[in-house]
Amino acid sequence: MTTFKIDTATRGGKAWFNRWIIQRMALFGLFGWLGVTLSSIWWFFPWQWSTLFSGGRFAYAFWWSVPLAVVGGYLAVYAQLKLQGRSEHQEAEQAAAANAKTPEEEAIERAEYLAARRAGFTGLEIGTSTGELLERRGHKGGLPSGTPVVLSPEDCAKNIIAFGGIGSGKTSRFINPLMLQLMEQNAGALILDIKTDFQREVAAITAHVGREYKTVGDGGMTLNLLRGTTPELAASFLKSCFLAQGTGDSQIWADLATEHCRNCLTLIKLTGSDYSLAGLYDIAVDDKARKALIEQAEAAFDDMSDRDQRLQMAVSRYFTTWDGYDDRQKSSVMVNVNSVLTPFSHPDLVDAFSTGSEQGEADLTELINDGAVFLVNLPQTKFGKEGARYAYLLIKLRFFNMMRERRTRDDWNQTRPVAFVCDEYQSIVDSVSDTDFWDKSRSSKTIGIVSMQGVASLTQALNGNHKAAEAILQNFRQRVVFRTEDEATLRHVQHLLGQIDVVLTSSGESYSESVSWTGLGMGGRQPTQSQSISESENASMTRQDLFSANDMRALSADYCLLIGNIGDRAADEVLQVAPLYIN
Ligand SMILES: Nc1ncnc2c1ncn2[C@@H]1O[C@H](COP(=O)(O)OP(=O)(O)OP(=O)(O)O)[C@@H](O)[C@H]1O
Ligand SMILES: [Mg+2]
User: Fold this and answer.
1) Pocket flag, ligand 1, residue 169 (CB < 6 Å)
2) How remote is the CA of residue 73 from the centroid of ligand 1, in Å?
3) Is the pTM above the cut of 0.70?
4) Ligand 2 centroid to 170 CA: how many Å?
């Protein structure tokens, strides 16, 4: 049914309204005139005389014209609107038919949309502002309600971190939607799937936007973790692992273990042996194998270049010193070396990180040059808990190193953003590389997108090193906080957002009754009784958390708190976030 509404604003304004009134007046006038005319013809008939004689001819005409004008006018207007409605309906149908697209046209349109999106990188939308902090709590850093919060490429490069308890929305409201936007645009992405539950999401999202992804690890490509590194760089990677495994007084032993590995790697390089983690493991822990290699290097000394000869002498000197260490010192160093390298002697890890996979070896520079998408998948069930963890950590370090190198490589693409996506990030964090990389990552166009349950898990992963945790968090300038009860996260939020002045008004009514005895008069003591009722209103100023622990606990999965930086200003607001489920 068509509904008719008089809407002067949308149907043509005042001119239209005037026309509408004139039309109706003309119709009613026409039928009124008809009434008068007809009645003036009929009034000679004798039967009207008896009923309307007293009013005269004009009253008679008037009483005829009123019903005719009303009924006739109404019918005429109704017919007119009906006709008009029908023609509008037809017009709408014609317009819809003209706009209707065939599936082919729709496919072309989508392809055009995707091609336009793929041409560049315009940023990432996090959610829509609710205006809670700006409009309801008067926080200057808030955002007007309804504003879509979009991070420009520069804002994205300030790195994004999400916190939230189990089932708070990190995957469905944060990682998935951001992944989709990254994939639609021309960004490369390295996805470290620590929980090994993300393959389905990546497959669905890349397929949806017509892109491919490559799996590294289980059932996919291999990656030689040390290929192309110098012994110094490889040793620095291992140092991060030694520190991450954290056994109490580890710093000094981690340093010595690093030194030991560096010399072993140099020895391997000099003799052209197996320059891999498995190869390193053999030489580092097996005295016999190492001695054999030293002898081999010494035998080849005369054929070496001048630089290699000097390296060889330094290595020989080191191992002489090493032989002089007492057993307790050696075993303390070996605890570190073993804990990190033993997993890499496992055949599955050897296969995953050596050449020989049918799918070939992954080349991480494709992230930069081709905007490739790599999903690293190393299930603990297959590679062991420690093996998987160190392998992820080493891949992270290789990635960091490559991104650092980017600016110096003219032959590499210099504009494409590369995202580093990692859920449960605390499990591969370390106090050396993460404090150092993220504060300089902006110039290399890296976009860090990581999530974890809370600040407590980060500090714990860093063996209680609060300073390192703070230093790392400082370089994730866009913080997205979902529902959480983690004390350390709540404190972090309060620390960032601070408190506001709140005026508390309290009104009260008090009633008092008193009896007093006054002196001793005639007839003994006389009590006097008094009652009073007083009303009062108090206003007091107090400091309250802008967004309290209770507010944080009360967030539903569709809302999060952004404590971020947009352009050169702080942007703190409660955002509404839409889920992206992959079923
Ligand atoms: N496929 C789905 N269909 C419907 N609801 C879902 C789906 N996946 C998740 N949810 C709901 O969305 C909410 C957030 O889930 P999500 O997996 O995003 O949380 P999370 O923070 O990633 O949790 P975790 O710490 O376990 O990874 C949960 O309440 C969950 O019930
Ligand atoms: Mg999740």
Assistant:
1) yes
2) 62
3) yes
4) 5
